[in-house]
Design goal:
This protein has 134 residues and is an alpha+beta fold. The chain contains two helices and twelve strands, in the order E-E-H-E-E-E-E-E-H-E-E-E-E-E. It has helices at residues 12-30, 80-86; strands at residues 2-3, 6-7, 33-36, 46-50, 53-62, 66-67, 74-78, 94-101, 110-112, 117-119, 122-125, 129-133. The strands form four sheets. A five-stranded mixed beta sheet has the order 3-4-5-8-11.
Length: 134
């Protein structure tokens, strides 16, 4: 929110919430159901299901994406534990890193009027993301 002409301090909790809302909206549009986990101890924030197929997502959000020189691939600093959990061989469903990209200014994330709600976000999923380990 803008306060006195300044951009309000952006909290990581807000980034987490918009990434989850974005995935929920996209899943709903595609006919998938979603289940959000209270604790992501297994590296999963949300599981989507459609036609009896489950897909697990670890969601992240940034206003400063790192785009590599090919112009299509994003790099993201992901902790090694979460990376290993997402790619574990013994997973019962595919695990993906979802990266939601938002404007720096929180006021620009959503526009709402009597007819619509517009989310100003874009996504890059793990097929286009290279994790840089912490």
């Amino acid at each position: 929110m803008s306060v006195g002409g300044h951009v309000a301090e952006l909290g990581t909790w807000q980034q987490e919430q918009i990434s989850l809302a974005y995935l929920s909206a996209v899943a709903t549009r595609s006919g998938a159901t979603s289940a959000q986990w209270n604790v992501d101890k297994d590296g999963v924030d949300v599981t989507l299901q459609r036609d009896l197929i489950d897909v697990a997502f670890q969601m992240k959000c940034t206003y400063a994406p790192i785009l590599l020189s090919d112009g299509e691939t994003y790099a993201f600093d992901l902790d090694i534990r979460t990376y290993d959990l997402l790619r574990a061989q013994n997973r019962s469903s595919a695990g993906y890193l979802g990266l939601v990209i938002v404007p720096r200014n929180l006021d620009e994330w959503l526009t709402q009027d009597d007819e619509s709600l517009l989310m100003r976000c874009s996504e890059a999923f793990s097929t286009k993301i290279i994790s840089r380990f912490r």
